[in-house]
Each structure stands twice: as C-alpha cells, then as structure tokens.
User: Fold these one by one.
Assistant:
Number 1:
Amino acid sequence: MSTLVLVLLTGIGLGALYFLVASGLSLIYGLMHVLNFAHGAFLTFGAFIGWEVARRLDSTSWWAFAVSILVGGLVGAGVAALTELALIRPLYERHIEQVLVTVGLAFAAVALYEGIWGSDPIYISAPAWMKETTSVLGASVPNTYWVLMLAATALLISLVVFLRYTRFGTIIRAGVENRAMVTALGIDVRTAFLLVFAIGGSAAGVGGVLAAHYTGYVSAHLGSTLLIFAFIVTVIGGLGSLPGAAIASVLVAVLQQFANYYMGGTGDIIVVVALAGVLLVRPSGLLGRRFA
C-alpha cells in the first residue's frame, strides 16, 4: 500500500513540474497561436540565474530558495518579453517562420549556456527541509514534490483569475477573438500580447528553478529535456487549454511513474504510446476544440 501511495504522489508531483513548463506553452499558443520551441531556453536560463543567486546568498537557506524562485520568474519573464519584441512580433500569423526562429533560438541558447557554464551538469544544494520527507499512509514522500504541487496549484489559480477577472485578461481574450475590433476601440493589443509572453516566460523561469531542485542539478540541456514532455502534455490536454494541460500533466506523469516502477522503466515509451492513442482517437486533445 505504501509503495502504491508513493508512486502515485511522486507521479502527481512530477505532473506538477510538467504543468509548470507546459502552462506557458499552452497559454502562449492558446492566446497568440505561437508554437514557441524556445520555451525550454527560458526555463534553463531561469534555472541557471536562480542557482547563481542562491549560491551567492546561502543555497541551504529557505530565504535564498525563495529569492531564487522570484529571480528565476523575473528572468524568464524578461527574456520571453525580449523574444516577443525582437523575434515574434514581426512574425504573427507566419507560423513556419515562427517555428524556424524559435527552434534556432533554442539551439543558439544551448550553445550559449554551454559556453558560459560548461556542458557538464552542475550539482546544486537545497534547503535541508526539501531533502526531508513527509509520511503519508506509510509512504515517505520527499518534500520537493509538495513544493512542486503547491507551485503548480498557485500558478493555475493565478492564471485563471488573471484571464477571467482582470482588465488585461479581458483585453487579451477579446484580442484573440477579434484583434481588429479591439484595436479600433483604441486598445493596444500588442501590449497585452507582450504580457502573455512574459507570463509564459515567468512560469518557465520558476519551473526551471524548481526543476533544478527536482533533478538536483542545472545543465544547458535541462530545458530541452523537459520541453519534450511539456509538448506531449500540451498536445494531449488540447493545444491552448490550461485545464487540459493541468489534467494531462498529472495523467502523463502518473502513468510514467507507474510504468517505470511496475513495467521495468518503460515510462517514456508508454507516454509516447498514450500520445499516439490520443492523436488517433481525439486529435484536438482532451479539452481542446474539435477540428472542423
């Protein structure tokens, strides 16, 4: 029983990490129709800068951990905003060019990170309480997973409240539906779209810092690895659907954990098979709009 609970809860915690990464992808595509393959670069940069800040303060203290998360989010937002201004804004509704530019940026970013921090993983220190465990029904669950769950829940609630109950959220949703009409009303939709990109980048930056604590290291390829599962989650949940991404994140991670434990480490294969099954049965994803 304790083993089952442990696998289930660690799967939910891993799903929370997937959602932190996938939420930005889903938000940016759902509101701006941009497939951002450089999203992993935002995550990696946030992880590196968060680690640099934490180690200069006191990487084993809780306040240094909190500051690193804040800095990671701000760095991710800043880099994402610059990317939107310099590279994405001239290419709206030009999807092939968007893909090529963001893929190129992702490769260039990895090379840059390797040039600055090297190609080998850098193992990090964490606050002592994150290395401890909490007992649930006989299962000792590492506290890192609880932090991931809390962060993902707070992010989902914040995004839903922002989009539904704030002025900027209303402008963004209206701009997606009819950009010309909103512009005719004297509202600068470009500012709202820039904010969307910044929010997505901020989620990636926070996810990068937490991913580093989950894996125990930072490396130039951290974001690239997680981006694969983020895209799988986004597609299964339905492109552009935040609730879909949240549900798919948990389903994919739990399935992956159970397959890894009970089926000889076949979690990645099972996830790919699940993706293929969803695409065959429901190409729009779990909560995505059906194709006409």
Note: The chain has a mean pLDDT of 87.
Number 2:
Amino acid sequence: MLLSLSNVPRDYAWGSPTLLADLEGRTPTGGPEAEVWFGDHPGDPADVQGDGTLDDVTGGSLPYLLKLLAAASPLSIQVHPTIEQARAGWARESALAATDPNRNYRDDNHKPELLVALSDRFESLSGLRPVEDTLRLLDVLGESAGVSELVSRLDGQGDVLRDTIGWLLSGDAQAVVDDVVDAVHTAAGSASGEWAATLRGVAAIAETYRGDPGVVVALLMNHVVLRRGEGVFLKAGLLHAYISGLGVEIMAASDNVLRGGLTPKRIDVPELLSILDTTTGEVPVLRPAAADAVTVYPVPVADFSLRRIELDDASVVIDVDGPTMVLATVGRVVVSGADGERREVPVGTVAFATPEEERLTISGRGEVFVAAPGDPAAEG
C-alpha cells in the first residue's frame, strides 16, 4: 500500500518564518515554522491524504520519526539517553502524570538522531571540544576574572567538563557567565584566524539568550557548519544544539530530551549530568556522494536508515524492508509500487510504503530522502 503524507508545521519560537515556505514554493504563514513531523508519534502523527493519520495505519509501531527542521535561532542545548537510561528513567517516573512538569522521560526509548543539511549552510553545536583546545580558545578572551575562573576549573583534575557544566548551570556562576559573555562579544568584534567563526557564532547565540549560562556551555562545544547534503549523527549522551538552517532529521521514535541551556524550559542539572557523555572530540561529518548518485548516511543503530537520491529524469528501484518513507525536497517526483500504484510526491511531502510493497520505483527530476528501519544487527 502507498499513502501520501503531509503535516502542518509546528510553530516553535525558534522556527524560521521563510525556510519551509521557500522549500515548498508557497506563501509564508507569517509566523515561525519550525518542524514538520512525518511519523506516527502521538505528539503529532502525520496526516494521510484522504482520511486519518498515520498512527491509524501503523498502530504507533513505526521505529523512527522523520522531520523537516527549519531553525532561525538556536534550539536548546540538549542530550538524549541510551535505551537503558531511558528505561530506568521511565520506570522511576512511572507515578508522575504525562503532563507533569517534573517529568524528564516521556517514553522508555532512546533518541539517536541524524541531521542532513538542506540549506547551503547549517550551523550547529555538536559534542564537546577537547579541553586543551578550549583552553586555547579562552586565551583569545583575555584575563578577566570570569574567564580566569573558567580556565581554572577546566585546568583542574578529574572529569572537569562534567564538573564545569554542572557549575555553570547550577545558578552559582552567573557573575562568571556574564563576564565571559562580555569577553566573547569583545573578542568576536575583531576576531580572525582559527576561532573567529566560533566566537562570532557564540556571540550571536548570546544576543538571543542574554544571561543564559548555556552560552558559556556552548563555548565548550564543537562549532560545526554543514554544507548542503552533509550530515551529522548524534549518539546518545552527546551534547548538541542546532543553531540555524534547514535540514532533514531522522531519529528513533522518542521524545526524551534533557536540556542544558539556551532555553526558558526546565533544566534538571543532576539528571542531565547523569546521562551526559563527556568524551571529547570532533563529531564526524558525513559527506554526500557525487552528483546524480545515491548517498547512504551510515548510522550505528537499528531504528532507522536514511538515503539521499538525486534524480535526473531517470528511475531508481529500491527494495522495501519495513515501513518506508520517500520525502521529496527538490523537483517533481513520482513513486510507484510493484503493482503499478503511483503517487506524485510534492516537495515537502512523503510517499509512505507499507512493508508488503517489497520494492518501489522512484522517477522524475529532483531529490528525495528515503527513510526506513535500520540494520537489525547494528550496534545501539
């Protein structure tokens, strides 16, 4: 069975007023448009053309959630649990109502995710930078009292990143936060060389989130700029935040988020620190294949897989092994099932194939992303 899926953009405050409308070739609504969800998650199941929503078809069994994401300003710094951590947290909070503001765990699943840039520039914070590199960055900020205190904490013993992040978010470090942010603004105005882009990026975040300790947490993170077609996989425990741009995002079907700054929402510092992975290093950027080719974005999870296919008035046949989505992002695309059933897929919508389809033919001129369950043998 082939179904046509669409959804209404979610109006989170950080959403772009133009990126999704420009992608789909329509007039903007005038408000922020942040995410379009293509899945059966109860928070916002996709609409099925003709009648109903996708959860009516799947019974809520889809292992992944596919999204279009359009950010005009930074999302919260956040981290997601492993499946073991999610199950333990869900069990601990079983007595809390689903809407209780003190609840951290909305389900018992992990939430690894993959983001692929659709805009020419997608800016993000991904993972923690090696401490020795951050100390070199802080050298650029001078020797004010706040900067010196931050350097002293990072130059200590033990798990200094976990300790420093906990201190920054505790409420006891506001004077240091304000001082460091002032130093960032000063340095960003004349920055050049290795740290110029990072300092300008963090200074821009500070303009949106004045006084938020997450701005200083952002200084500890890798500043990553993706070009169109490039992707980044974010594993459980990895601190991250999207800053700006348009992308395709796919994740395990979960809503478990622990926040670490750049948000007015609740931050549970002890729980955040308990699941945070403070292993440092660059997060690998996944590069697209050559033009007119299929790009596979390898991920070490069984929940989802994602391919990017460029079409030039040709046809590509793919096997269906589980519930499969074809999301059109450029051009005019048609998806056909094995029995000849056809679905035109306007940009910004999805053709959904149930597993009994076995194979699909994708034709036309444009670009699609194919989402499906991942390899069952993949490591979680």
Note: The chain is about 25% helix and 30% strand.
